[in-house]
Amino acid sequence: MTASPRRAWSRPGTLIAAAATGIIGLGLCATPASAHTPRWSADCSKVEVHLNAYNDGVKNTVTITADGKDLLPATEFGKSFEQTIDIPAHTAEVKLHLSVKAGDGERYSFEDDKTSPVCQGSGDTTPTPTPTPTPTETKTTESPEPSETPSESADTAPSAAPSTPSTDESPAGDLAETGASSSTPLLAGGAAVALLAGGGLLFANRKRRAAARH
After folding, report:
1. Cα dihedral: 125, 127, 128, 129 (round 10)
2. What is the pLDDT of residues 34-92, one digit of tens each?
3. How far apart are CA 68 and CA 187, in angstroms?
4. What dihedral angle (degrees, nearest 10) is formed by the CA atoms of 99, 102, 103, 104?
5. For the whole model, what pTM was predicted?
6. Per residue in 2-29, pLDDT tens?
7. 85: exposed, middle or buried (C-beta count within 10 Å: 0-12, 13-18, 19+)?
8. How many CA atoms lie within 13 A of 20 on its CB side?
9. Which of 25, 114, 127, 174 is the most buried (most CB within 10 A)?
10. CATH 1.25.40.10 correct for 25-116
């Protein structure tokens, strides 16, 4: 029994359609994997990372180190990752390492090294401390404190110098020259007594005479 012409034509068409579908499916499956594009650059002050066309249905991670220390700790990303990271100031070349772990297969992971040079004119980045100006010592003339001089009390005051007898005074022997003597009072007293005695005798004689007349 022979197949009809229609059935004979349909069978090759089915096979062709199936083959084409398979090829397209394989191409779609392979496209995400083959399109992984890691790119990065570094200069004396920064690192730029561009990761594109990764499989966002799996867990992808990226890490960057500088001289073995984390510059970018392990960070998860999906279909793409782009970031610019500053490099700390340095006076010697810094070794940078980029590590990309693709979640859809180790063959799609990426490891690479770069070197960050020293920026021109940076020199020693350690700030030089500004010297503190030494204050000028101003010499001030201090008045000496007055010493405590004990006040001289009246009892401790030096006694007055003894007065020197005036040389104007004449000795007793000179009284005769001025008409006075130390014996003058005695002589005057004796004269007075003699006068009194004479008066008394005179009065007594008169009284006696008067009595004799009677």
Report:
1. -170
2. 589 999 999 999 999 999 999 999 999 999 999 999 999 999 999 999 999 999 999 99
3. 146
4. -160
5. 0.45
6. 555 455 444 555 555 554 455 444 444 4
7. middle
8. 6
9. 114
10. no
Strands 94-101 and 110-116: antiparallel
Residue 111's contacts (CB-CB under 8 Å, 6 or more residues apart) are 97, 98, 99, 100
CA angle 187/192/197 to nearest 5° reads 125
The HSE-up count of residue 143 (CA atoms within 13 Å, CB side) is: 3
Phi/psi of residue 8, nearest 5 degrees: -65, -35
Amino acid identity, residue 26? L
3-state secondary structure the chain: CCCCHHHHHHHHHHHHHHHHHHHHHHHHHHHHHHCCEEEEEECCCEEEEEEECCCCCCCEEEEEEECCEEEEEEEEECCCEEEEEECCCCCCCEEEEEEEECCCCHHHCEEEEEEECCCCCCCCCCCCCCCCCCCCCCCCCCCCCCCCCCCCCCCCCCCCCCCCCCCCCCCHHHHHHHCCCCCHHHHHHHHHHHHHHHHHHHHHHHHHHHHHHC
